[in-house]
Every structure is written in C-alpha cells, then in structure tokens.
Design a protein that fits this description.
By secondary structure, the protein is mostly helical. It is 83% helix and 0% strand. Helix 1 crosses helix 5 and helix 2 packs antiparallel against helix 3.
Length: 92
C-alpha cells in the first residue's frame, strides 16, 4: 500500500513544480479577489492531481502490470483514495 502511494507521489513530482508556479501566478493575479478565492483554487488544483495520477497510470498501462503483483484491486483503489486525502490535506 505504501509503495502504491509513493509511486503516485513520485509520478507527480514534476507536476508539483508546475503547480507551484500556477499557485504563485493565481495568487498574484487574483490578489484583489481575496484569500478565500485563491485558497479555493489551490484546493481544487490539488484535488485534480488525483485525476492526473490515474491518467499517468493509464498511459503507462499500469493496471496490467499491477495485477501481476501481490496487490489486490481494492488496495489499488484504496491507495488512490489515500493519495486524494493526502493531497487535499496538503492543499488545505
């Protein structure tokens, strides 16, 4: 389980750099709108990163490879939910 979560976070390492640049841009661009607007955008971006992990897995044909390992489908799905909770907590 920990390995699946670590895989998703390592896949997102380059995305975190782009996300940081986007957060700075939105913070400057929407400074007049107030902090709550910027915070909402940040949380939304972190929530959308889970979809990015799913698309990375699909492009790499990860599901076919993962089924050959001693990992159940339920554990794979649970790891995606845990990554979502982790990223949303980080974004909040």
């Amino acid at each position: 389980m920990k390995g699946l979560i670590l895989k998703d976070l390592l896949n997102l390492k380059s995305t975190f750099k782009m996300l940081g640049a986007m957060i700075v841009f939105f913070a400057v661009a929407f400074l007049r709108e107030g902090n709550s607007f910027v915070f909402g955008i940040i949380i939304l971006m972190f929530a959308m990163m889970v979809v990015t992990t799913i698309s990375y897995d699909d492009l790499a044909k990860w599901d076919a490879y993962a089924l050959t390992m001693p990992v159940t489908r339920a554990e794979m799905v649970l790891s995606k939910y845990l990554v979502m909770v982790l990223l949303n907590t980080l974004g909040a």
